[in-house]
User: Fold these one by one.
Assistant:
Number 1:
Amino acid sequence: MNSANNIRECEQALADLKESEERIKAIVNTTADAIIVINGRGCIEHFNPAAERMFGYEASEAIGKNVSMLMPSPYREQHDGYLARYLQTGKPHIIGMRRELVGQRQDGSLFPLELAVSRVDHLEYFTATIHDLSVNRALEQQLLSIAEQTQRQIGQSLHDDVGQELTGMTMKLQSLKKYCADSHVPERQLLDTIIADLSRTRQKLRTLSHGLIPVAVDAQGLPHALQELAADINRLDGVVCRFTCCEGVQVRSNLVANQLFHIAQEALNNAVRHSQAKTIDIVLEAVGQQISLLITDDGCGIPVNGQRNHRGMGLPIMKYRAGVIGGSCMIEAQATGGTQVSCQVWDKR
């Protein structure tokens, strides 16, 4: 009797286990995000339908292969080393964290993604949940384009309308001066002061309006634009700015070139206005399939967390611009003093 009961209990336990497995499988296979399970060697053990749609591989093509097949260089070559070090030391690189990276589809195309990796307790298995950020990036590009268009309209309006009014007022005051022939009378001196003040205001307005009108930079013109940006900084008293474009740099996308230029522009503005830097280096280089932009200064630096209240939105905007083009932007204090802004992006048409 006991034997029969034990058999029924085992059969019920097996049925419950099978039902639980089917339920979990149904959840994993119907989720909108890609879910990939790998073993301790980095080989794919499970590849859900969302992963098939996202990367373009059938599950049968992916299972048993190294997960690095879904990554572009240099991450593809580095992945197994990261995994082996984690298993040896227990120190995570991305495990337990949520990060934005770039994935590579079967056709070779790249796309932005958000990755979260967790380890299965007591087993050398890792589960990766991946969300495609392509739609988010497209929307961000549209928002950025709208913001720049609005900014351009404001700058143009300041230059054309307000600037013209200030010019007209100056001309009227110049005419009024003719009625005050004696340059020593208080009225004439007051007029000269007002005209001088208006002239300075017009110059400030011109500078402000030009700053509000975004500079359009195409792929071929990025090195030249950065060289001109460095030359503008060199015109400031006591500041030396050097630009280096390493051999082999080929920026193909106008969007990437434009955003990299604005990141450099913002970084230089921070270095001069907030860090009081005396020496600034701009380096544009190619690292594997990546374009790298480095801006290094010898100023007072930034706190460890990279934030400083009086810098306003400058630092977040640089990171936002990098995200829009599927890249990353790091702002770090250097051990020797000063700040380094590092931006990496995969350049594609």
Number 2:
Amino acid sequence: MAMYERFKENIVEKGLLEKGQGVVLGISGGPDSICMLSLFLRLKNEWDLKIVPVHLNHMLRGEDSKKDALFVSEFCRQNGLECMSYEMDISGMSEKLKISLEEAGRKARYDLFTSAAKENGCSRIALGQNLNDQAETILMRIMRGTGLKGLAGIEHMRDGIFIRPILIFKRSEIENYCKENGLNPRTDLTNLEPVYTRNKIRLELLPYIEKNFNEKISEALFRMGGMLREDSDFIEHEAEKEFAKIAQVDNGSGVVMSREDFNRIHKALKARILRRAVQAVKGNLTDVTEERVSAALDSIERAAGKKTIEFPGFVDVIITSGMISVRTRQNGLQRTGFEYA
């Protein structure tokens, strides 16, 4: 089956997009995003889509970064589209927020794409990750330690807005498509340097595994991620049902659960239910680590007296003899530790 037909079939099968919708495309100028844009240009007329290409210059590679921006703008112009092009000092952002360059770049892109989607009335944001990116992500998470959801890898759709329509394609397929269609995408030479963890996995670890153990390791990891995603989604669904049964949610005061009801639930669901309660109060799960969740679960199971576990975003999980309360911290202080009686 031709790549375009597989692209369209995947979108329909995964429910990523519907006819007539608006979609922001994150375009770096590399093979993945240019291939994705080319495929969307064909789908645009067939499905009456509104296409909004967005490019962010990270200001990390000097003249090469500027040439990327010019290439994307010109490519879009030649295809009848106007590219929304921006630049941001990612290095400065990294230092200011005390996060890695990778994290800073990702945050900047997601914030920009979300803003562009709202500004242009788009209900989807398309990102250009591919099958090999999925394999690299899963391996990276295995090495760092992760649960079932982490092993499932990158989602085809996240939060009902972020979609990854070319996740099913291998990097080699994408590069061949670009060559066959004369797209001439840009090459980010930093991707060829074994500096970052992901680059080391891509350039050193995966080739070693392919040579010595399994030449189709990327495809195997991709299939594994898909199977585990189904399992994870089922457990998430069961956890949501249990949360609805035992949790009393009050937007004014937080979430309250019976400790007895919580402790009778299967262990596989407890962490998900607790995260769901924290999310209901906090609004998100940013910086909610496994360490804090495990500390709270241990106290819920064992604590004899009152115990409070602090979570980021000024949220407390308060455990008493009979109840579990998740609520906003009243004094607004963040202690250096996170557990106190």
